[in-house]
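Forum: Protein Structure Q&A
Topic: Joint prediction for protein chains with partners

I've read a bunch of threads here and the consensus seems to be that you should model interacting components together rather than docking separate models afterwards. I'd like to see that in practice. Below is the full input, 276 residues plus whatever partners are listed. Could one of the regulars post the assembled result?
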Amino acid sequence: MLSQTAEYALRAVLYVAEHATGRPVRVAEMADALRIPRNYLSKILHQLAHNGVLVSLRGKAGGFQLGVRPDRLTLSAVVTPFDRIEQQRRCLLGRPQCSDRTACAAHERWKDVAGAVADFFRDTTVADLLGNGATVRI
Amino acid sequence: MLSQTAEYALRAVLYVAEHATGRPVRVAEMADALRIPRNYLSKILHQLAHNGVLVSLRGKAGGFQLGVRPDRLTLSAVVTPFDRIEQQRRCLLGRPQCSDRTACAAHERWKDVAGAVADFFRDTTVADLLGNGATVRI
DNA sequence: ACACTTTATCATATTAGCATGATAAAGACA
DNA sequence: TGTCTTTATCATGCTAATATGATAAAGTGT
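Posted by a regular:
Agreed with the consensus. Here's the joint model:
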């Protein structure tokens, strides 16, 4: 569903949201906890910081924090720098043009399903996933 | 959503369902009509034949026909030889174990969406997509 | 200024998906 | 049997995603 990279991004953001309360979280700690290759994760986090999802702090006591309040941070915002899911899910048969007017064979039946997926990413926030504050499996 | 290969497979099967009425359809014709690289398509069709979705006939007047009645042929059957969608969509965060009992952070909200996608592929048949017999965009 | 910690970035390797070109094998039919 | 048409398969190349290792740059505290 998600590319490996986008999945790493999502898990990392959830980890930051859960653990960076006050102090930022270091890459090494995250890479270790989430079993993600360290330098690869570093690049992903940097990209997320570039997009405003995270804030990076260098030097001693550096690391990453959320750049957006968790209840304002949608999964779409986390994932789109790595997977262009909106565009991917438009047409099941990959037609460049596929709409109600120029429908492919699958359009009528597929559009609701694709819509549900898009809505999920657009409407679900990081806060929704962390829920009541109980520790959560990432 | 689908890999390029699975998308080719689906379009090819729809093409066969629509055009192989009586005589089989040749690879070259299909590759041309669907703008799919010929030898690559050949391999995909061979794989579909191996899985019983298509039947291949060699020699003069050879080509491919459906191996299953269109109203019994689900999109899942067409696509799973190339994309293991069932497994892919289980857990958004990629956990090997993720169920109601061992839920990841996203499980509760994601499972309905993932279920809708899985149902679509399991329940939709080739006949559903071809519908009333009017020519259809593939 | 210096030492230390941490992120940023560069160079490169590995793998899988996608694709092409050439040749082999099978079947139809004169 | 021989020739033609068609699928089957082999060998190879290309590209992007994924990953690793080494080094540079930035910031903190003494």
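The CA atoms of residues 56 and 64 of chain B lie 5 Å apart.
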